[in-house]
Amino acid sequence: MTPTLIPLALAGLLHIAQFVVASYMANKDVGPGYTTSPRDRAPSREMRTVTARMLRAYDNHIQMFPFFAAAVLLIHVTGQSSGVTVAAAWVYLIARAFYIPAYALGWAPWRSYIWMVAMLSIAVLFIAALI
Prior knowledge:
mainly alpha; Four Helix Bundle (Hemerythrin (Met), subunit A); 5 helices; MAPEG-like_dom_sf; membrane
């Protein structure tokens, strides 16, 4: 496995872990009767704020992860891995790891800054693939 692919694999594991934790929290808050249902109605109990934030943080990673994966795979397939691309991939992973507690704990405006670092890391990967 190349050095650029390692952060991609770890980001995938982070994604799974984030899903498990957010799902567990939602199940505790609204109950398995709701979480295993087709969810045609609103839950009878409300989620805690931190649970809703964890689910939104997970949804955000659903949106960002494909861009990161595409950028890393583009670098890998074209053989353009370098110190810059490896660093950018690791910075993305670290930023996403910090984003989860930043969102859950309501770190404003830091959560947005952390998100920007992750997005800039993806941009660096795409730009590196072009030059």
